[in-house]
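(Structure overview)
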Amino acid sequence: MTRRRRVAAYGLLRVDDRVLLVADGPGWSLPGGTVEHGESPQATVVRLGLVQAGLRFSVRTPYDVLADRVELPGRTLVHHDRLVFEVNATGEPTAPSKWWDVSALEGVELTPFTRMVVAGTESDGGALLERDEGWPIERGMALDRSGGRARVQRFSTYAVATDPAGRVLLTRIARGFPGAGHLHLPGGGTDFGESPTEALLREVREESDQVGEVRGLVSVSHRHNPTAQGREGYPIDWHTVRVIYRVHVPHPTDPRVTEGKGGSTASAAWFRPEDIPTSELTDFAGSALAEAGVG
């Protein structure tokens, strides 16, 4: 069976008790779709909102992040990472979009992730089939070699992790990896068939031996580097979509790396916010801590 990964972004537009949906085959879905290589998820929502609903969305905050696996005709299994953003818009939508009263959706055919979002049930990071340990590509990566050049889109999750004393958990990047020697947030790519929060807590355990609890979303960002060069030894057109969560570690211990040899983490440590050596932080970690109000 062929396996693929797809990152998608959607807009949740709600006014009073109505929600905007677009026709999706025989059913209805939130407006949105595939995040193109190098495109920010927020830009995806704006682009497809205009195409599918004739509206110019103003993206507000991330609402939820989900994951699912869908089997398509021709024995193709697709893992979707779905980012949902709350949006604003003015004007009246055009076909194939339509306003629906939320109370009238019970008998309407909706895509499964749309029903989960619109119903308001907490997803805890995704409704999934069983996790697949046999995925042959590195964590979180969709690899495309068409055109003779490696192009990677990677979906990853990171933690602004704190303990009851207010300390912050940071990791140090190992030699041979981009940013080597700098302090970074614990986290990394998600496995095929793995929810974002499941992946995040696994990464926290592997990189620091801490057991955490996800407490909510901080932000969603992306980075596109068309000439990134790491351990592979040759440049790769690299696009990373990054979700940042707040994580609480109720029973902190002395951090230690458990992911084995060859991993990207050299060490981990707890820091009081005032003691964080800001000059040693990656740009990403510094921005994430500021967004979370830490330091």
Summary: Residues 122-139 have pLDDT under 50 and may be disordered. Residues 2-119 form a domain with the Nucleoside Triphosphate Pyrophosphohydrolase fold (CATH 3.90.79.10). The helical segments are 41-53, 112-119, 196-208, 283-291. The longest strand covers residues 213-228.
